[in-house]
Design goal:
single chain, 767 residues, alpha/beta, Rossmann fold, Immunoglobulin-like, 4 domains, eight-stranded mixed sheet, six-stranded antiparallel sheet, 27 helices, 33% helix, 22% strand
Length: 767
């Protein structure tokens, strides 16, 4: 049975959501299955703080609060595996949430997760009281102001009337500022304790810059831990670890024997008829994926995306329901990516059939629609997730890993009738030894010395005391290694020529070192093709101690790098890793993808994808005299010194979407900014104005000419606008770049475009 943690404040603006988000986000680092529920209604911010967009909310989860798969399908997965049940987007919908429904939801969630963190905000209504009453731990967030302390006293008095044990309550003072307290602008910690008659458990510093930075980037501070022992990042990490240790036995502790009967949710069969998977689901094994989509190009693109991740293996694909069933039963995949609409059968009955005949697999539905009806239909079919096309790579990876993890846990429960009827109270879906009740003293004893000295607060609270050895003198402490939030960036030529030496330069660096890096990379202008391109950075960052070895490995089948891998120690503010490469003639006129892997202690912590155009040597080495009055030489000189295009507007017929998308992927990999209407336009936006604005700000108007394009009135509007308003002076000769891919040209261009050079490009819509 998992533990419910209610995060509450008696005052608005105290930081409830910040505390709840960081508690929940930290738990998965201990191997715990965690769920974060946003009930800070009617105005909720968990989705904003984590930069999550979800098509399902807590209201959708309440539709069926007895089905584990329905609950999982309604959650959104954060990048570290945390599951989030977001609040309804409209405040008026908050009235649909009832205490009775929440009671059932919490009962179900406690059977599926180790920790359920609920942000109940500061409104103490019936729903909030239901959560607080069910909670193993109540985290009370206190503002160090007169009204904040007064309201906290009222909340504590209420908890006492409800007979809640003191072990259940963790008191946290947020926005602590000793300077403000010394000026009597805030209440100091000692007076707060005296008024509340409690020993405060934690204090969080008033670090506005850190909090706003985390909010704007959608990254919880617990992921940005720095060297400053008084930082908000560090304080939140220690608070989360303290609550974790209150609820989980340490390695040296003996769990107390406690037995409970199964809950009503457990009596619901967990597909107990399922056989164990013929292929073991041990940790770290490759996840086999089977793709079902009627469009071969979509399956090919998904296969390419999954190839970037080492823990995925695409074992096959199918374009129809009949083909899908036959291949899936033969291949026995872990995950089936299933399109919701197939030519011979709807995805819903197909999913149900697959789960009946192949119960060891998890199904992820895909489709272009994202209405509530479509989502509910997908969930009712047994799908773990529903992905809306076009699918972002990170969302695809997270969904597959989460579905695989949940499937493994579900199969684990199909052990024996005895295990289904009687379990230890400390049982956990992830193998953690959960305490039956919180133990604050045990958590304090488990804290290392460095964690115990986090604050100057002179009380017994979490960050407020010293460990002492026998004679009463302070125990010696080793200074923690200096840590730094380290970013990873790569400089590389966007175009490389066969037979010539080029360079790839990867930097591990702190954010403040940008100017130093820019100066340093200037030494390698020639190896980068004569200009300094914009750096491409990894999305991931890492907390790295001074002197830690970092290994950089560029991975690419078409290119060989010298050295193949390079390890250096982190010395800050930046460390550079140099690689040489000489393209061969084999990939000429192709774009190759280099995946730069960043590893620490053998574990990949970040990666960077780099796209490089490979070209023939030919005229690349020709240098033109800028004083030459020959117009061809002048044009050549201008082209040599022009800035590389960054913004590209794609003008295409929607019937040629696959070709346009293939082009877009290549350009994005090369670092270019590409506008394609299905991605660049948003619901409710004036799409005509948005298209005009995109054309105005583009450097290239990439026109994909085809019979479909020639017949499209909307396509005509685009090139006509460009000719009349974007570059009327020169007829858009350098702006509009028309290409066609069927030879001979399938339809003659109109008179207005006849002056442009239509170029044949031999790519195909077939993968």
């Amino acid at each position: 049975m998992g533990h419910i943690i209610a995060v509450h404040s008696a005052s608005g603006g105290a930081g409830c959501t910040t505390v709840a988000v960081n508690l929940a986000a930290r738990f998965p680092t201990h191997g715990a299955r965690s769920l974060l529920i946003d009930l800070s209604l009617p105005y909720a911010d968990v989705g904003v703080m984590l930069n999550l967009r979800s098509s399902a909310t807590v209201i959708d989860a309440l539709v069926d609060s007895t089905d584990p798969e329905h609950l999982e399908a309604c959650t959104t997965v954060y990048e570290n595996g945390l599951r989030v049940l977001t609040a309804p987007s409209h405040p008026a919908d908050a009235d649909q949430v009832t205490s009775e429904q929440i009671e059932k939801l919490l009962t179900l969630a406690a059977d599926l997760y180790d920790f359920i963190v609920v942000d109940v905000g500061h409104h103490l209504n019936k729903t909030a009281l239901t959560v607080i009453d069910r909670a193993s731990v109540i985290v009370l967030v206190i503002m160090p102001t007169l009204t904040g302390v007064k309201n906290a006293r009222l909340a504590l008095d209420l908890f006492k009337q409800l007979a809640y044990p003191s072990e259940k309550i963790v008191t946290v003072v947020n926005h602590v500022d000793d300077e403000l307290a010394s000026k009597k602008l805030n209440v100091d910690m000692k007076r707060i304790e005296q008024y509340l008659h409690v020993a405060l458990d934690a204090r969080l510093p008033n670090d506005t810059a850190s909090a706003l930075g985390a909010l704007n980037k959608g990254i919880p501070p617990v992921f940005r831990h720095g060297a400053d022992d008084t930082s908000l990042d560090t304080a939140l990490i220690h608070l989360s670890d303290f609550v974790f240790k209150m609820l989980v036995y340490g390695e040296d502790e003996t769990p107390q024997p406690a037995v409970r009967l199964e809950s009503s949710a457990e009596r619901t069969p967990r597909r107990s008829s399922r056989p164990q998977s013929p292929i073991g689901r041990e940790a770290g094994r490759t996840i086999s994926v089977f793709i079902v989509d009627e469009i071969p190009e979509t399956a090919a693109n998904l296969t390419k995306l999954l190839a970037f991740e080492s823990d995925f293996k695409v074992v096959g694909s199918a374009a129809s329901g009949m083909e899908c069933v036959e291949k899936a039963l033969r291949l026995q995949p872990d995950i089936i990516l299933l399109d919701a609409t197939l030519p011979d059968i709807d995805g819903t009955p197909l999913a149900k059939r697959l789960l009946t005949e192949l119960p060891t697999a998890a199904i992820i539905m895909m489709g272009v629609l994202s209405t509530v009806e479509v989502l509910q239909k997908a969930m009712q079919s047994g799908g773990r997730h529903y992905l809306v096309k076009p699918i972002a790579p990170d969302e695809l990876y997270q969904s597959i890993r989460a579905a695989y993890q949940f499937q493994s846990a579900t199969l684990h429960f199909d052990a024996s009738p005895l295990q289904e009827s009687v379990r230890h109270a400390s049982a956990s879906t992830s193998g953690l030894n959960l305490r039956p009740t919180p133990d604050k003293n045990a958590a304090l004893e488990l804290l290392p010395v460095e964690e115990a000295k986090m604050s100057k607060l002179p009380t017994r609270g979490l960050f407020s005391y010293d460990y002492h050895s026998g004679g009463g003198s302070p125990a010696p402490q080793a200074a923690p290694p200096e840590m730094a939030r380290t970013l990873f960036s790569a400089y590389y030529p966007r175009q490389a020529f066969a037979g010539r030496k080029h360079g790839l330069y990867v930097y591990a660096h702190v954010e403040a070192a940008a100017a130093q890096m820019q100066q340093d990379i200037g030494k390698f202008k020639e190896e980068l093709g004569g200009t300094i391109p914009q750096a491409r950075s990894a999305k991931q960052t890492a907390q790295v101690a001074f002197g830690t070895p970092i290994t950089i490995t560029p991975e690419c089948e078409e290119l060989q790098f010298e050295p193949a891998s390079l390890t250096k120690r982190w010395r800050g503010p930046f460390t550079r890793f140099d690689f040489d490469f000489y393209p061969t003639e084999e990939p000429i006129d192709e774009t190759v993808i280099v995946r730069v892997s960043v590893r620490i202690a053998g574990i990949e912590v970040a990666f960077i994808r780099c796209g490089i155009d490979i070209a023939a040597e030919s005229a690349a080495s020709i240098h033109v005299d800028p004083e030459d009055d020959n117009p061809l030489a002048a044009a050549r000189f201008a082209s040599q010194h022009a800035e590389r295009y960054q913004r590209i507007f794609i003008s295409y017929s929607h019937k040629d979407t696959e070709v346009a998308r293939a082009y877009r992927l290549a350009q994005v990999a090369m670092g270019n900014e590409v506008f394609i209407d299905v991605d660049g336009l948003h619901a409710g936006e004036n799409w005509q104005a948005a298209l005009a604005r995109a054309i105005d700000t583009a450097d290239i108007f990439q026109l994909f000419w085809s019979p479909n394009y020639a017949e499209s009135e909307f396509c005509r509007y685009e090139w006509d606008y460009a000719l009349k308003y974007r570059c009327a002076d020169d007829g858009c000769e350098s702006f509009i770049r028309p290409v066609y891919w069927v030879d001979p040209i399938p339809a003659p261009p109109p008179q207005e475009l006849s002056h442009l050079n239509f170029k044949f490009v031999p790519f195909s819509q077939k993968a």
